[in-house]
Amino acid sequence: MIRDALVRIRVIALPFSLGLAGVACSHDSKTITDSPSRASSSMNVYDVPVKTLEGEATSLERFSGKVTLLVNVASYCGNTPQYSGLEALHERYQSRGFSVLGFPSNDFGKQEPGSPQEIREFCSTKYKISFPMFEKVQTKKGDGQSPLYAKLGEASGKLPNWNFAKYLIGRDGQVLEYFDPKTQPDDPKLVAAIEAAVATPAK
Asked: Exposure string (b/e) for 28-42, b if CB count within 10 Å is 16 or more?
């Protein structure tokens, strides 16, 4: 009789145990499902196709393994004198695998209305710009937004709110930090971020 009672206890306990196991599995599954998406952290900016200032198809892939500072530039803005500081940064750190990348944009105040030739001449004659310049782009959301800026916005959670916003990109193509348009090229925080990035060896 004792033996029969033990068997009955085991039969009753088995569904209860399975129920607990089911609850545990369900909880674990929910935890995995609810974990934050890591998609943005794996976005490689250097994979995005772009065009040169003159409209020739190219890619940012050639900057893979380098640190870059992407800037939406304009020729007739109160921030336009930042060109001088950006060129100084480019010259100072290019030997350590760094480059400023300029992306003209007419999004804010219509302050970049010129043709590619006019933009090139302005940058060359007034500011002696030697860093790469790319095709005029739309940084704002909506129809016509540059795929590059769509990716930058998704990866950083921020889009430019005026001319001369800056994205610091690491050697692996990941967005390291966003700096607003008021941040001067010689700002200690920006310089320190660049110093740290170029000190990181390429993988």
From this structure: eeeeeeeeeeeeeee
Catalytically active residues are: 77
Integer-rounded Cα Rg, in Å, for the chain is: 26
Among 101, 103, 99, CA closest to 66: 99
Tokens representing 61 are 């892939």
Q: Are 89 and 99 in contact (CB under 8 A)?
A: no
CA–CA separation, 179 and 158 (whole Å): 10
* Distance between CA atoms of residues 110 and 92, nearest Å: 31
Q: What is the pLDDT of residues 178-187, one digit of tens each?
A: 999 999 999 9
> Which DSSP state fits 159?
-
Range 82-86, long-range pairs (CB < 8 A, 24+ positions): 82/164, 82/184, 82/185, 83/123, 83/126, 83/127, 83/129, 84/127, 84/185, 85/184, 85/185, 85/186, 86/129, 86/131, 86/185
Residue 190 vs residues 166, 178, 197, 200: alpha-carbon distances, Å: 9, 9, 11, 16
> Between these two residues, 1 and 148, which has the higher pLDDT value?
148
pLDDT band for 202, please (50, 70, 90 cuts).
confident
Please return the burial class of 202, using the count of CB atoms within 10 Å of its CB with bins 0-12, 13-18 and 19+: exposed
